[in-house]
Design a protein that fits this description.
By secondary structure, the protein is mainly alpha-helical. It contains 5 helices and no strands.
Length: 146
Amino acid sequence: MVEQSERDEERKARLIAELERSRSGLARDLRGMRRSLDVGAHLKSAILRQKTLWFTGAAVTGWLLTRLPGRRKKQEAEPKPSRWMPKAKESSKGGWILTLLGLAGTLLKPAITSYLSQKIEEMSLRGPGGHAAPRPMRQAGERRSR
């Protein structure tokens, strides 16, 4: 019985030692991996070792980029007249109507927005099947918004 407990203790000590070796090896490998994946440090050391090569490359790249052709202006083509879009001469006849419609749209936009937001809020408060869902309770001192 005593021999059995001694063997168990010895086995336990071997397992603990093996686990510790495994953990230290894993930590060492992790440090090595972090070091090898540190792109910033590799780039910095490469620049420090070969300054002239890196600065010459940067200068040549900059010079090549300045030699690229610039963007060209886009030339807008005249739209072809169609039966749906009147010509410029014809559009001046009904221009005041379009101006009035644009002004009416500008003036009515807040009212339309308010109306639609109220309808969306009402629809969101309804539950599935069109039944009214219970309204959330207001906090003390909170005003009712309309």
